[in-house]
Amino acid sequence: MTELQVDPAASADPAAAADTPRHPAATLPPDSVGLVVPERMHFAEPLPLRNGSQLVGYDLMVETYGTLNAERSNAVLICHALNASHHVAGVHAEGEVGWWDNMVGPGKPVDTNRFFVIGVNNLGSCFGSTGPMSPHPQTGQPYGARFPVVTVEDWVNAQARVADRFGIRQFAAVMGGSLGGMQALAWSLMYPERLRHCVVVASTPKLSAQNIAFNEVARSAILSDPDFHGGDYYAHNVKPKRGLRVARMIGHITYLSDEDMAEKFGRELKAEDIRFSFDVEFQVESYLRYQGDKFAEYFDANTYLLITRALDYFDPALAYEGSLTRAVAHTRASYLVVSFTTDWRFAPARSRELVKALLDNKRPVTYGEIDAPHGHDAFLLEDARYHALVRAYYERIAQEIGA
């Protein structure tokens, strides 16, 4: 279990983008949070869901980094994107490095010498939290297709219970990139008094029709796989790998920019000359197939369906006749919003739409549009200008709370 590190003065009652890098424990860099072990938190109280049902008895996987101060005022929640997890930073025993390790750690932009950082694996995921692969409490068999459709709002409500478990009344910041940014935004809407700052990176206040279309094509690839078996493929001891592979290939294309793909692959051939076949001819084809094959080995198809649908449903302006300005009117946080010029999945225009709505309500907001060639995946990469912006913002937060 993850040890909850609290200053002695505090109360004793605390109440995967490109290939994931790996580091043997003996070669950990000095700015790593080091070896980390996740904690499984069980919640017996039913969780009401947006679809009208409830989840009875569920687990959430959690990792923490840094030390929670006596006032419990230095906590930062990191929300993950589609195929990530609670493993934000540090290294697991098998050598897997956290998906945002370049952002979180000692002396890094989110400095764990000053902040207590929490990563939570969302419900419906396939990395230990209760999801389609988990046993149904009534049958003992995997939920499969019977797992309820969950939303961003459901995840935020579950994360709030994690905060309660740690005795955290207000986060110094809630932060996320991509789908994680949607969760951070939802926190500021649903629990306006429970966070001082909201950091939204490479995200959007709602998906465009094009983005929903990409998700639909990806889901269709999974649903049409003969091994899907209506979502109950576990009982057949198979996985719909072909559909999941195609879904990942589709998604991966949208995470990269045309500029980045041209630089990485161009029209380079796999062999010395064309072979007039439908096998892999171009390097970019080889790359996509590799990414698809790798993803299909470790990810769960039902989870992919659930998370992409949660992306589709997120639209806080819907309850306000489509007005984002009205939707954010009751927020209390200060905001950092970051976008990347070549991100065409969640384009800068979507971030500017959020910034305008916040400014219309006179909310304090800092906006950074980073000129970077790497497309949507830029939020995961170590860019000097991007990290300097985030570092400066967290320095401001640290000064506010005396961290």
TrEMBL record:
<feature type="region of interest" description="Disordered">
    <location>
        <begin position="1"/>
        <end position="31"/>
    </location>
</feature>
<feature type="binding site">
    <location>
        <position position="377"/>
    </location>
    <ligand>
        <name>substrate</name>
    </ligand>
</feature>
<keyword id="KW-0486">Methionine biosynthesis</keyword>
<comment type="similarity">
    <text>Belongs to the AB hydrolase superfamily. MetX family.</text>
</comment>
<comment type="subunit">
    <text>Homodimer.</text>
</comment>
<dbReference type="GO" id="GO:0004414">
    <property type="term" value="F:homoserine O-acetyltransferase activity"/>
</dbReference>
<keyword id="KW-0028">Amino-acid biosynthesis</keyword>
<keyword id="KW-0808">Transferase</keyword>
<dbReference type="GO" id="GO:0008899">
    <property type="term" value="F:homoserine O-succinyltransferase activity"/>
</dbReference>
<keyword id="KW-0012">Acyltransferase</keyword>
<feature type="binding site">
    <location>
        <position position="248"/>
    </location>
    <ligand>
        <name>substrate</name>
    </ligand>
</feature>
<dbReference type="InterPro" id="IPR000073">
    <property type="entry name" value="AB_hydrolase_1"/>
</dbReference>
<feature type="domain" description="AB hydrolase-1">
    <location>
        <begin position="74"/>
        <end position="382"/>
    </location>
</feature>
<comment type="function">
    <text>Transfers a succinyl group from succinyl-CoA to L-homoserine, forming succinyl-L-homoserine.</text>
</comment>
<feature type="compositionally biased region" description="Low complexity">
    <location>
        <begin position="7"/>
        <end position="26"/>
    </location>
</feature>
<dbReference type="InterPro" id="IPR029058">
    <property type="entry name" value="AB_hydrolase_fold"/>
</dbReference>
<dbReference type="GO" id="GO:0009086">
    <property type="term" value="P:methionine biosynthetic process"/>
</dbReference>
<feature type="active site">
    <location>
        <position position="376"/>
    </location>
</feature>
<dbReference type="InterPro" id="IPR008220">
    <property type="entry name" value="HAT_MetX-like"/>
</dbReference>
<keyword id="KW-0963">Cytoplasm</keyword>
<dbReference type="Pfam" id="PF00561">
    <property type="entry name" value="Abhydrolase_1"/>
</dbReference>
<comment type="pathway">
    <text>Amino-acid biosynthesis; L-methionine biosynthesis via de novo pathway; O-succinyl-L-homoserine from L-homoserine: step 1/1.</text>
</comment>
<protein>
    <recommendedName>
        <fullName>Homoserine O-succinyltransferase</fullName>
        <ecNumber>2.3.1.46</ecNumber>
    </recommendedName>
</protein>
<dbReference type="GO" id="GO:0005737">
    <property type="term" value="C:cytoplasm"/>
</dbReference>
<feature type="site" description="Important for acyl-CoA specificity">
    <location>
        <position position="345"/>
    </location>
</feature>
<feature type="active site" description="Nucleophile">
    <location>
        <position position="178"/>
    </location>
</feature>
<feature type="active site">
    <location>
        <position position="343"/>
    </location>
</feature>
<dbReference type="GO" id="GO:0009092">
    <property type="term" value="P:homoserine metabolic process"/>
</dbReference>
